Amino acid sequence: MTETGRRERKKAATRQALADAALRLFLERGYDAVGVREIAEAADVSVTTLFKHFPGGKEALVFDQGDDREAALVAAVRDRPAGQSIPQALRDLLRDERSRQVRGDPRFADFLRLIDTTPALREYARRMWLSHQDTLAAAIAADAGLPGGDPGCQALARFALDAVTLVHGRDDAETALDRIFALLDNGWTGITTEAESCQGT
Which residues are CB-neighbours of 121 under 8 A, at least 6 positions away? Predict the structure, then answer.
């Protein structure tokens, strides 16, 4: 392995150790009761190193996948199967991501509870998620052959991202996601026609 590869691997390991230590301490004692110095000590690094990896501070330690999630949103638009609409592709991505989180990490429910009960984290999570709007809108516009600032593309990006907030905490989150993205895919006329059809059966 090259020296550059070793450095990158070490940086990634340090970053992960900090994120893991922060989440463990936050879950044990509550977000407000834990300081950055304690997190650095738990990960066996200096406070300077912590801020080098997480310049956003404590909130950023909880949400460590911003770049990966943005890349996944763009890939869902760009690499979707032929014949699949953009809203359908985004819906599938969000449903799959949610399923993986629920199945893959036994602490996921505790993580959600931590965010729900900590106003600073709730607001940070929303800001961070919606920060992907411009990049997602640009990907949608490029796919559709429309100008980058097209308001329809911007609206679709915003509503698709907001869907996550709208279904959060619902017992029927997956069904709710389906309904929201059916609206984005078919428009209001399509969704009301579908509802009338269901009521008639």
Answer: 31, 59, 62, 114, 115
Q: Single out the residue of 61, 91, 66, 98 nearest to residue 76, CA to CA.
A: 91
Which pLDDT value is given to residue 3? 67
Number of structural domains in the chain: 2
CA–CA separation, 141 and 126 (whole Å) = 23
* Rounded-to-integer distance, Cα 112 and Cα 62, Å: 11
How is residue 106 written in tokens?
């036994």
Residue 79 DSSP label: T
State whether 178 and 87 are in the same domain: yes
Q: Is residue 103 part of a domain?
A: yes
Read off φ and ψ for residue 61, nearest 5 degrees: -65, -25
Q: Does residue 61 belong to any structural domain of this protein?
A: no
Amino acid at 165: T
**C-alpha count within 13 angstroms, C-beta hemisphere, residue 154:** 7
Verify that 71 and 149 share a domain, yes or no: yes
Asked whether residue 84 falls in the same domain as residue 151, the answer is yes
The confidence band for 183, taking pLDDT boundaries of 50, 70 and 90, is very high
Residue 45 DSSP symbol: S
Identify whether residues 129 and 82 lie together within a single domain.
yes
What is the chain's length? 201
What's the domain range around 96?
66-200
- pTM for this one? 0.75
